[in-house]
Amino acid sequence: MASLLRLPPALLESPVLRLRPLPLLYRQARFCSSHSSPRPPPSAAHPPTLRFAPSPTGYLHLGGLRTALFNHLLARKLGGKWLLRIEDTDQTRYVEGAVESLLRTLKWAGLDFDEGPGKDGGNGPYFQSQRKEIYDAHLQPLIDQGRAYHCFCTPERLAETRKLLQKRGDNSTYDRRCLGLGEEEVKSKLERGEKSVVRFKSSSEGLTQQDLIYSSIHYPSLPIEDFVLRKSDGLPTYHFANVVDDSRMGVDVVLRGEEWLPSTPKHLALYRALSLPPPSFGHMPLLINPDGSKLSKRAGDVRVEDYIAKGYEPEALLNFVALLGWSPQGGGGGASAEAGGAEKQLQGQETDVLSLEEMVEQFSLPAINKNRSTLSPTKLLFLNRAHLQRKLAEGADAEKRRELSERCARVVGESFGVGNVEEGTLEAGYVGRVLEALKERIHTINDVPNLGASFFLPPNLDSPSAKQLYKSVKPEAYRSSLTSSFEIIASLPEEAFASPTHEAILDPLNELVKTRGKGPKEVMAPLRHGLTGVKVGAGVPATIAVLGRERTVARLKEALRRSEEGSL
Fold this sequence. Notes:
4 domains, 3-stranded antiparallel β-sheet, two-stranded parallel ribbon, 11 strands, disordered N terminus, ATP-binding
């Protein structure tokens, strides 16, 4: 038996949505128009058509990315398809470049829609601003049938009307003054050029709807709200265009955020008025900040582009937003993984590390929970490191490794300046070896310039860190150790620098440590100083392997020269 909807208190307090216990009959049957039968649930036997329909009023944020991802996962899991539609009817809020940014971001994430801008599947245009004739064709029958009507009220009169209704304790938003206008009067006003909107003649009756995620939802009887279908500029409102487009494009499953729950009665009423079968709706819980507040730019990064700029992997960010409300098979989930912020607390959650293909395989609607999901920066860093290590693992996809290396090379070039790095250090093969050496230390590729600067720039032996490291070993021991190490490294076979284990480099250095009898520090500290000039970084054998014989020998010679002349 389906369970009753349990929503967050903030939404339950909304006057638009009230819940009450439902009879069994209502809990088992979702709302449908009297002109259609309930759709079968999405399954491989009934592959769904879904859509992601953002508005170009800003840039894609984490919530939008999750919506696109869940639509993608369900479509691929069940052999269906999903389309991209741009809902740009509100031209006053249009942001220049937002559409281009959206397309770039979806491509970066690997979310390949089946239809949409630049990929016509027979349901275009995919911009609502280009579909005016389609909306007009659906609107006129509603007017002819008395289900919609022209309203000529000015903004000033509407504002005054709302005040009067509120004073009377009436929650309605309009007094239906223009509903009683005769056909000839309406025609005359239109011919005189009077501006009008078209309103939907609403009903106050309640309804019950079966949600794919929240189960049964009861919408009680509401105040009359004859909402606008077409604005005075001739463009449709979101509600009308949304319903018409979903029907015309064959969308039979709509996955969207819970903030659209209060709008669902309007959409269902429109489907009924238009004699169209409504899709199955699934509303996903909101994403919130660790302090419980709604996501906002003031509280931290929200735009996906912010995360791209910070060097996160697309697989990791998709994995992260998927776990915000969805629990994979055997996974720990990620809805509220902050829990103190220490990364060690995330140990044991390796089953949460999933590629896009693995998420498709495991995805199911029942695994989406109904609780709001808290962002955890710690969890994202954990996942990003895990995905980096996957890409760098032995036997990993060579193309993904090359692409990662090229992105990292761009980050390094932008950080240091392409003309300032040592020759050949921005080549993909070399950068790949750097990433391999640093994979246990970095969380994102943006960490590489800070933690691996010495792989790209000559060591700064005059820095405070280098001077402090130099003082940790006596000058005589420093020079003696470097001389012996130099001889060992110069005599190593070429294959020693290519070994992934670095044993061919480490073993003779360990023998040197035993011979000198003073402990590893007397050998490794001078090497680290001469090669990097910093105390912390990749292991010395790994550093030697990445730098290669020629660069290693040159750096050690320079450090030895400066020590002998006393300029360190």
